[in-house]
Design a protein that fits this description.
Blueprint lengths: L3 E7 L15 H10 L4 E5 L5 H11 L3 E6 L10 E6 L9 E6 L3 E7 L5 E8 L5 H17 L8 E5 L9 E2 L6 H14 L1 E3 H5 L8 E3 L7 E3 L2 E6 L6 E7 L9 E6 L22 H23 L9 H22 L3 H17 L6 H37 L5 H7 L11 E2 L11 E2 L2 H15 L8 H13 L7 H8 L4 H10 L13 H16 L7 H15 L10 E7 L10 E7 L1 H13 L1
Parallel strand pairs: 1-2, 7-8
Antiparallel strand pairs: 1-15, 2-4, 3-4, 5-6, 6-7, 8-13, 9-12, 10-13, 11-12, 14-15, 16-17, 18-19
Helix pairs in contact: 3-4, 6-7, 6-16, 8-9, 14-17
Length: 599
Amino acid sequence: KASIKFAGLNIKGHGSMNFDDARNKWSDIRLMVLQKQIGVLVVGEAHMDDERRDEITRIHGNDLKIFYSKLPDSRNKAGIAVVFNMRITNTIGIQMYEVVAGHAIIIETNWHNDERISILAVYAPNTDSATNAAFWGKIEDFYDRHPRIKKPNILLGDLNMVEEPLDRLPACSDPTAITSSFDSLKCSLQLEDGWTNTYPDTLKYTFKQNISGQRLRHSRLDRIYIRAQDMEHTFEWKIEQTAVDTDHSLVSVRFTSETAPVIGRGRWISPPHLMYDKAIMTFIETEGIRAENMILDLEAQDEWDANHNAQTVWADFKKRFVELARKRSKIVMPHLTKKISELEAKIDIVSNDPELSEDERAITTAMLNEALASLEKHKHKTTRVMAKARNALQGETISRYWSNANKSKSPRDLIQRLMKPQTQSTPQPEYTTSSPEMADMLGIYHGNLQKDPTPPDVTLREQTTARILGNITKKLSEPHCQNLKEKLTDENIEYALKLSANYKAPGLDGISYEIWKLIHARYKNAIAHDRAAFNLIQTLRIVYNDIECNGMAPNTKFSESWMCPLYKKNDRAQMANYRPISLLNTDYKIMSKALTIKL
C-alpha cells in the first residue's frame, strides 16, 4: 500500500548558521530526509526561531517545510520542530497547535482522500523527574480542555524516559511518578509502543551517554507510539545511525491507512552504474559479440524464419541482459553502503547476545555505533562535496541541473481510486484502490476507445483515401522516392542515437539511452585500440532492416509499451479524466528516429 515514513531525531542543537560550515546540521538533515524518503521528521532540541527557520527555507525551501515551537525565554534551549518533505507529502492545509511551548506540538495534516492525520511531536524535559512527570500531565490536560482537537494517530520524539528497565543498559527503572504519568496519558490516548509490539524480544537503544568516570550507558529514549487501531497499518520499524552530528539515533516507521491505494513495484530501470560491473561488462563483450555474429549469419540467409531471425536473437540478448542486470542490481552496492549494512547487523547481534555481560554489551555497542556514525558522516560528506562541486560547475548556467534546483517540488500524484464500470447488476458506483486492477481497467477503457464498433466500408474507404490523396499537389521528387526505398544505414542509426536525449524514461525493458550510448562508446574506443568489441550500431541496423522487410516477429515484445495515465481535470475517480501516454522501449524509439532522419 501507499505509505508515508515518520521519523524522529534529537539533533542536540541547531549547529552553525553558516550553511557552508561543516557544523551546520540542516544540510545533513535535508540530505537524510531525501535519501531515506522520510515524509515527516520530528526534530528534538531544534533550537529554532523565525530567523533560523526563514534561513533554512531560503536555502532548502523547495524541499523542506518547517513548523516549530520554542521556549518563550530562549531559542538556544530545547525546542521542537516538525519537518515535511515537500517532494512526497502534501503541505496544504496543515494546522499546528502548541501544547507545551518548546516541548510539544500537534500537527494535523491531510491524509489519503479527505482523511486527516494527527501527529503529537514531543521533546520531553530532562531537567528533573518532577518536571518530566508534570509534562505528560500537561499534555493529557490539553486534550481534556480541547475535546474538538483530534486525538493523535502517532506520538513520537525524545521522551527522556523509559517504561521498562530493559530499555536502559545497565537495566534500571525510571521514577514511578514519571512512568505513572506517562502511562495515564498513553491510556487516555490509546497509544501503544510500536517497536516493543513489533520486536518484543529485541533490545536496541537510541541514546548513548558517556559520563567521565562512570559506566557507559545506553537508553531507548526516542520512541514512536501508535494508536492501537492503527498498529496493523504500520511496518518497517527502524532504529538507525545517521550522519547528523548527535548522540541520538533515528527512529522511523512507515504508516498507511485502510483507504490507501495498493501500489505495485513499478517499472524496473537499469541503473547506469551497473555498466561498470565486471559481470555486466563481460556479458556485453562475450554475449554481445555472439549475438552480433548470429545476426550477421542470419542476414546472409535467403529464407526468413519467423521463429529464428535477427529480431528473435536481439530479443533473447536483451532478455538475458535485463535478467542479469536485475540480479546484479540486488548484489552490487557501493563499498561504503556494504560496510554500513554489515555494522548494523553486528550491532543487532551484540545488543541481544545473552552471553555478554552488561558492560561488554555497552562497550561493544558503543564502539560499533561510533564506527557506524563515522561511516554515515563520511558518506554524507562525500555526497555534499560532490553536490557542491556540481553546483559550482553547473549552478550558474541554464541547464537541466539548474532547472531542477530552482523549480518547486510537488509530491507524487497517485491515483487514489477509480470507479468500476457500472452494469445493470451494480447500479451503485463501486470503487477499487488496487493498482493492478486500476491498470487493467484503464487499459481496457482506452483500448475500447480506439476500437471501431462498426466495420468500415472498404469501397467507401478507398474512395475517400483516393479523394484526399488527389488534393495533394506537392509530390516527392524521384531522388527522394529512391532514398525512401533504401534501407537504414549505420550512419542513420548512429545519428539517431546521438540525437536521443539523456534522462528520458525507458520502456518496459528498463534500458535507457545512456546504456546504449555507453556500449557504443566502448566499441569506438576498442576499435581505436584494435580490440574486438560488440558493434551495437551494426546489430541494430540489421534488426531494424529485418523489421522493415519482414514485419515484427511474434513474441519479441519490440513494440510493447508501458501506459501511464495522466490526470487532466474534474473527478479523479473517473477513468475518462485521465490521458494515457505510452513509454516505449528505447531501441524502438531509436528506430523511429532513424526512419525520421531518412525521411
